[in-house]
Fold these 3 entries.
Entry 1:
Amino acid sequence: MADLTDAAIEAALERGRRAHESEPRAATARFNRQTGRVIVDLTNGCTFAFPPRLAQGLEEATDDQLAAVEILGHGYGLHWEALDVDLSLPGLMAGIFGTKAYMARRAGQATSAAKAAAARANGAKGGRPRKASGQ
């Protein structure tokens, strides 16, 4: 392992300071019962909100459980102790509401009038075509 020099350590600390100043972090977090959303006020003055029913581990949570949100890791995460749920704020802001498997399951559950109509039309044609043998 290479020896760390004072200059390398100072450079890493400076990168951390710049990231801490520029990356969005949570200043406050709360659950709004009227809107049914978790609202996060960011240190840069912006506000981010999301419906907790989209997030892995929060789907069946009660309003009282959702209201017990805490901020983790210098503002980079949200935590619900009673639910044993931790969510990354950068992930949430990027639309990642759970693990890869969870997100894939959620994508398959999406319903809309257009999707239902397409499924009915496809069913009327005999459904999905079978794969050709050898593929």
Entry 2:
Amino acid sequence: MRRLFRALLVEDNPGDVELTRDTLEASKVRIDITVAIDGQQALQMLRREPPYADYALPDLIFLDLNLPKISGREVLAEIKQQAELRAIPVVVLTSSDAELDIVKSYDVGANCYLTKPVGLEAFQSIVRSVENFWFTLVKLP
């Protein structure tokens, strides 16, 4: 039986959530996708705070930078500061192509930075590329 991979999608845009989920669910790889709609919820899940005490940590995190409550930048910094979480690869998938956002994301430990493309096919292609790389080629801890 094929391995089940777990992904945490931290995204507040319902359209991007649906598109990412649909693309990943159409994969040949078995992926369980959990969605956090803001940075606060993502950190609660990752820290296994109530009501997420039984949350299974993900193999990969898709992280938008522009989130309500706690920004994606703060979430990324927190993930990479915690020993239990820092080995989880974080793919920043955001609308920002600002050089400062890119540099700061890598400075605090992003494993990959991708700008969300405009258009359905381009977006699906990016998500499939991430999926193929992280769930097929890379050996995850």
Entry 3:
Amino acid sequence: MHWVALLLAGVFEVVWATAMKQSAGFSRLWPSVLCIAGMLISIGLLSAAMRSLPLGTAYTVWTGVGAVGAFVAGIVFFGEEATAIRFVAAVLIVSGLVLMKIGDQA
């Protein structure tokens, strides 16, 4: 269950980051509200996951899911550049997350 909470925390990190972009510097109400709600949910789920997972693993996976998710959201929703080198970087981040999971079981 702690891994599910951690992955959901990462998803909500993407939600708040995307909403922050849409808020135009917190000048638009509803994206700003969604951003703050996403932050609170993300941190709450991260906190719950850290009850059972090591700090280094939990924080690394949380930020990695958020980073890759924000990368994908940027391409899909904001037309950001989808270059080969950026995809290689995303694959390396995901590879690191997998190794963290494997290392947590060792």
